[in-house]
Design a protein that fits this description.
By secondary structure, the chain is an alpha/beta fold. It has two domains: 2-184 and 361-378, Rossmann fold (3-Layer(aba) Sandwich), CATH 3.40.50.2000; 196-357, Rossmann fold. 40% of the residues lie in helices and 16% in strands. It is built from 15 helices and 13 strands. Strand 11, helix 12 (301-307) and strand 12 form a beta-alpha-beta unit. Helix 8 crosses helix 14.
Length: 379
């Protein structure tokens, strides 16, 4: 540490300035909280976020003596994004009003630094390049255009799985250090959950159920899941399929598929977005959890299901094998028969007791590794 001074870290806090955090927001919140707690006086954290007209919800911003925030009230973040598209990439110091040692950008893209601050972005997956059809056109275009520039000025990179690291290196030829930080599981929800009867009454179902948790978007392969469920006679007769999550983009065909299945008499329920207590209540009483995704960066529902000792039934894709190891049942996500038969097998098989190695990782370990990366890039 230079001159025994604390490392000064600035970070983009915009994913945190919301009441309902996305996966990126949850990851950043845990990381900043752990860095603040574990490193104490060795680190000074300065976050910045847009709060045009004072409309942002700041309840999820981590608070500690070594954390401060720069609130930007004169313009919205959309203006900054628009200027970037016109070739005007505003320097980091314009937002932070200070020099820093390292800058952490938790949402893929970064800003340049006029003082040579070390830039470290976090990249969670490569959907925008490998499966562009699964993203909104605007987001895909921005990432395709601007992520290479972010990587070129970065000093190192953080990602959440070895699989995504491999995809980044293969696609971009990235040669600097890539730190993999698996997402530790933490259950924030009280054990005082809803009863099964409450869920049945509110969402109008009576059978035991198979659970999907996640956003209803094409990458999640929901249409194949619904078709496989309806095609498998025993599943359709004995279970309800519950899809727990809101919509994001390109969801029209998924919503129609669910509606058609229901109109044909199949027990398929879409709950929409739910709070953590409702989500965890669904986990507690389900017969099994299924993730039919075509591509993922990690897959947190795997750990959420394991925390309730539920069978997990997953697409046979590399990242799921990395995260779940031998604790899951795997299927071919392109085959309706494979999906349906594997779900049925998992629901009636002996429980798998082994927990994967990633499930045991703690945030204190992750933040220690990240802090060491900061110190290495700053020397």
């Amino acid at each position: 540490m230079k001159n025994n001074k604390p490392l000064k870290l600035v970070f983009d806090a915009n994913p945190l300035a919301n009441s309902n955090l996305t996966g990126i927001g949850v990851y950043e919140k845990r990381l900043i909280e752990s860095l603040s707690k574990e490193e104490g006086e060795k680190i000074k954290l300065i976050g910045y976020y847009y709060d045009f007209l004072g409309k942002r919800n700041k309840t999820n911003l981590p608070k500690a003596q070594n954390i401060k925030y720069k609130r930007i009230i004169l313009y919205p973040g959309s203006i900054v994004n628009l200027l970037r598209r016109f070739g005007i990439d505003i320097p980091l110091e314009f937002f932070t009003k200070c020099k820093s040692d390292v800058a952490l950008f938790p949402n893929y893209l970064s800003h340049p630094s006029i003082f040579g601050t070390k830039i470290i972005p976090i990249v969670y997956d490569m959907t925008h390049e490998l499966y562009p059809q699964f993203m909104s056109a605007k987001n895909q275009k921005d990432l395709h255009r601007f992520l290479p520039k972010t990587l070129s000025r970065s000093s190192a990179l953080i990602t959440i799985s070895e699989n995504t690291k491999k995809d980044i290196i293969n696609f971009y030829g990235y040669k600097k250090e890539v730190l993999v930080t698996p997402i530790p599981f933490e259950n924030d929800v009280t054990t005082d959950l809803y009863t099964k009867g409450y869920l049945e009454n509110k969402y109008e179902f009576k059978k035991d159920y198979i659970l999907f948790v996640g956003t209803l978007e094409p990458r999640k392969n929901i249409i194949n899941l619904v078709d496989a469920f309806c095609k498998h006679v025993q599943l359709a007769n004995q279970y309800t399929l519950i899809l727990c999550g809101g919509t994001d983009w390109k969801f029209d065909k998924i919503v129609k598929k669910i509606s058609d299945a229901k109109s044909e008499g199949y027990s398929v329920i879409s709950t929409g977005f739910v709070d953590n207590k409702t989500r965890d209540s669904f986990y507690k009483f389900c017969s099994g959890v299924v993730m039919p995704s075509i591509y993922e960066g990690f897959g947190m529902p795997i750990f959420e299901a394991l925390s309730y000792d539920k069978p997990i039934i997953l697409s046979d894709i590399p990242v799921f094998h990395e995260v779940a190891e031998n604790s899951a049942f795997y299927f071919d996500n392109n085959s309706l028969d494979s999906i349906g038969n594997t779900i049925w097998q998992a629901l009636h098989a002996k429980k798998i007791s082994d927990k994967p190695s990633y499930f045991k990782i703690k945030w204190s370990t992750i933040s220690k590794n990240v802090f060491e990366l900061f110190m290495k890039t700053n020397n």
